[in-house]
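ping. complex inputs:
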Amino acid sequence: MARYGGIDLGGTKIQAVVVDEAHEVLGSSRLPTPTTGGPADVTLAMIESINVALEDAGVPRSELVAVGVGSPGVVDDAAGTVTSARNLPDWEGTYPLGEKLGAAFDAPIALSNDVNVATQAEFDLGAAKPFRSILGVFWGTGVGGGLILDGKLWEGRGGAGEIGHMVVKKGGAQCPCGRIGCMEAYAGRKAMETEARRRHDKGEKTVLFKLMKERGRDRLTAGIWDRALKHGDKLAQEIVDRAYGALGAGVASAVNLLDVEAVVIGGGVGIKLGETARDRLAEEMQPHLFNDDRPPAVLMAELGDLGGAIGAALLVARA
Amino acid sequence: MARYGGIDLGGTKIQAVVVDEAHEVLGSSRLPTPTTGGPADVTLAMIESINVALEDAGVPRSELVAVGVGSPGVVDDAAGTVTSARNLPDWEGTYPLGEKLGAAFDAPIALSNDVNVATQAEFDLGAAKPFRSILGVFWGTGVGGGLILDGKLWEGRGGAGEIGHMVVKKGGAQCPCGRIGCMEAYAGRKAMETEARRRHDKGEKTVLFKLMKERGRDRLTAGIWDRALKHGDKLAQEIVDRAYGALGAGVASAVNLLDVEAVVIGGGVGIKLGETARDRLAEEMQPHLFNDDRPPAVLMAELGDLGGAIGAALLVARA
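pong. complex structure:
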């Protein structure tokens, strides 16, 4: 029987799935992304992630016919390379990821952009199944966007979907990317943490950093933000509200330009905040929608955390 | 011989062309849009515009095989109707424009959105000929956008291209559309005039309104803005600079989302300010482009004022 592997390569974790020909998940795994060692060590962890998922599925490695990978950075599938993968250790240059994984599994490897594969998975199997044209909004450390227009992934010249760097406030806050006024400067988890730290250092009260310490974390994870909101933490609520405002303006701008049928929200923060995130996004979009009598459907990503890995497996399982 | 008519229906003027099978313009006309009388009187002026263009071309009406129309408002080609055409007199409801024109010319009529036909014309015959994916930016009373993706007009659910209502400054200026922070709130000719009047009424000096009076106009036309800039008028320059800033942020946002190959700038103000507009747009986009090492080509519309009418003729000449 033919089995397909999918790997979602993230800055903090590597997730893998093994699926069958019907795209059913047979097994999965989740490993921390190595923080040192460069691309070679990351590649070893990726190989391990598939092996653990095969074990979880009870599938022998001989049945694995191909592996798909969703990766950050500049992905060149034809060349089998990934260049300047953000948030990955020492991955500034170009690394022949396809060749290395292909040798390890003795199987063809397909590479694609992480956000695009997650969008494709929601389109094929998840929340966006009823639609032909969608915008995927992946709200995590940054804010990534994926576009499917009339049933086909839209990549432009290879760099489309940078929704996080749409300008929502000219002359506004500085984005982690260095530019000014990007949506991500308000809504990205990283930017939200910077803002929380700035206001905390100025003496404002918040449970955010206390929760971080208690959980032994070195950053404000989506779970910590969620917990702080449930505590009624005022500072956390204000920063999250600001994020919703920026997401609403930016996503509405994208809808005014493209008039897609549906918006699917996912990503680490989006999934953690769940239906509240979906409802608040729809609410904050509304005043900025030009065709406000027929807003797009706003939907929660259905495949959750595994969406990226499933989408990566689809890269090869569909072919 | 088969000849095709094209009509660009605008808020201040109606332009028409007659083209041959090679899309060559044989004759043209330009009439003021009636300011009273409603859709019926506008339709009579549209019929007249084609008759004048036929005369200009020396083409007998018997050779006219079809007429295309680019119209503002909500255009339904299948139904042959135009609804809520902005800036046209008493055109709030739905008017059977296709049927009326069809009866007058005894020929098939095709209707489409004014901005889309102008974008298509630049793509087929104008500045964007070398490209497959473009964004047309029509800078006039408002700011309209047209998208061609992989060679095909992208209309979404029928309302795509509202680039003027992408948010560039959350919490910023009020747009003539009533919303807050739209690109058009800074860059539309109408909004620019409102801002000039506000500052003039507060006592700031400008030649804008003096030029308007001298020319016997009741609004600040693109020509008046151009003249004031050449006079070195400080207030005019500041308002135009603000418009370039908003256009740069908004168009860069669209490029970050879609990664098109080229941006074509046209429209009444864009064409009047010419190469300066093109260069300033490219300059103001640059700091907001995520893939800033390979910006899209930024080009001046080549078909000028007649682009809309030529595009409208293409609607039928291509079929």
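Chain B touches chain A at residues 133, 145, 147, 149, 154-163, 165-172, 177, 179-181, 245-246, 249-250, 252-254, 256-261, 287-288, 290-291, 294 (CB under 8 Å).
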